[in-house]
Specification:
With 262 residues, the chain is of the alpha/beta class. It is 25% helix and 28% strand. The chain has helices spanning 88-94, 132-144, 167-172, 195-201, 203-210, 225-239, 244-253, and strands at residues 3-12, 22-28, 41-45, 59-62, 76-82, 101-108, 121-127, 151-158, 179-184, 215-221, 257-261. It has a six-stranded antiparallel β-sheet with strand order 4-3-6-1-2-5, covered by helices on one side.
């Protein structure tokens, strides 16, 4: 039984002349009981039928707001959606206007949830709209654990600053609360830089965190990034006299290594 929600806002996050149209969409759930956790996804059902005359299947999107809403104690949630040229659902969502009603399902997911421990240390790696759950993680910790003793490290990749979602708001989050490392691969007259390059620059701290049983690793974004990130972890571990494969396997077994790529 799908739920209904009303669009509260649809805001473009990337510059008008950027090569990507990424939107921050806020959905008001009204009186519907729809509890979510940071790291979960919801399914959006676009209207109409596919080429075979069948109703469209839900398209999953990561929730980018914390469990208590876009603003504290509000029954709403937000999504981060990039318009795709042939994307039936992404174009439908990016074209929505305030007051429009949509159909959604969920929430889904129990393997990418934030470590609900103020002492947990988080390494978060993403590209593009893969930033959605990490926005939720950060906001939740700001509200629920403002004096947390853990730490958060974010490695965020995009083509240019103009095409990086939440670039402006991220800059307002204190570095001591959220340590930010941006990687831009298409800045004019600058070398191409990817998240794995920024990871290697921070090798000493990452190596220390890999040996801490309170460390969790989260990887979210394009599947193509996994190979480069894994190679960076291998280099960092090897140079510190550690075995990355053993560390990764141990983190998986203890539920501290989380991957959500597409």
């Amino acid at each position: 039984k799908p739920a209904s929600a009303t669009v509260q806002g649809n805001f473009r996050l990337t510059a008008d002349d950027a090569d990507a149209d990424v939107r921050h969409i806020i959905l008001d759930l009204g009186h519907t009981n729809f509890p979510v956790l940071e790291g979960q996804s919801i399914g959006i059902i676009p209207p109409g039928k596919d080429a075979k005359g069948r109703a469209h299947q839900p398209r999953l999107y990561s929730i980018s707001s914390p469990r208590d809403g876009e603003r504290p104690k509000t029954n709403n949630l937000s999504l981060t959606i990039k318009r795709e040229d042939q994307g039936v659902c992404s174009n439908y969502m990016c074209d929505l206007e305030r007051g429009d009603e949509i159909t959604l399902t969920g929430p889904f997911g129990n393997s990418f949830l934030i470590a609900d421990d103020p002492d947990a240390r988080l390494i978060m790696i993403c590209t593009g709209t893969g930033s959605a759950p990490f926005r939720a993680f950060t906001m939740h910790r700001q509200r629920a654990m403002p004096d947390n003793t853990g730490s958060m490290k974010l490695f965020f990749g995009a083509r240019t600053p103009d095409s990086l979602p939440y670039f402006g708001p991220l800059g307002k989050v204190p570095q001591e609360f959220l340590e930010k490392h941006f990687a831009f691969s298409r800045v004019q007259d600058q070398p191409k830089t990817y998240v794995q390059d920024r990871m290697r620059e921070d090798a000493s701290e990452i190596a220390t965190m890999l040996q801490d049983p309170n460390t969790h690793i989260y990887l979210c974004g394009l599947k193509a990034m996994e190979t480069g990130v894994d190679a960076a972890f291998q280099d960092i571990a090897r140079n510190a006299g550690l075995n990355w494969l053993d560390i990764r396997d141990g983190m998986r077994e203890s539920g501290r290594y989380h991957v959500e790529t597409y």
